[in-house]
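[job 4471] stage=fold_predict status=RUNNING
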Amino acid sequence: MKNRKKLIVSIIIITGLFLILYYVFKVEKGELFESYTFEGSNLKIKVEARHQEGFMLIVPGAYYDYGARRNDSDTWIPIFTFLFDDPIDIPKNQIKEINEQVIYAFIGWMYAVTTDGGKNWHSWNGNPKLAQFANTGYGFIDKIQMDPNGLGAMKIRKHRGSVRSVELYSKDFGKTWEETKSK
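[job 4471] inference complete, writing structure tokens
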């Protein structure tokens, strides 16, 4: 019976410490520091940059929320959220309209495309474990070229400061990517 009381007290203390640590070290989206709206033929893409807030032992970064709204709707649909470990300016030149139906956006190692004027979005996440934990820097996706027929190329760097790059290719506006050549 005595051991059971010790176990219960220990569980209560550990649970309490866990909750205290959770709320002390909780990190969340903070103040908006930049906003940008891309206006396409049939839809708008809004990017909001918010500081990362909370108690951190590292320099806080910033969240970049991408959302879309068709011109015939009042509802903003989330596309993706990206977290950089340092605040940067919103990369406005990384949202492109191919035609009224096809628009894509990218930041870091995230890419999203719509091929039906914003009704549906397809996201591609360029291996976040490699990018986040293997010292991969900003601009993981360096460049994307896409033609009106859906053929595209994405140039990516695998490591921060690397001059070596890899090209990925798509036949479907970037819904899927394949590595077929290396440089």
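[job 4471] summary: Confidence is low (pLDDT under 50) at residues 129-139.
[job 4471] exit 0
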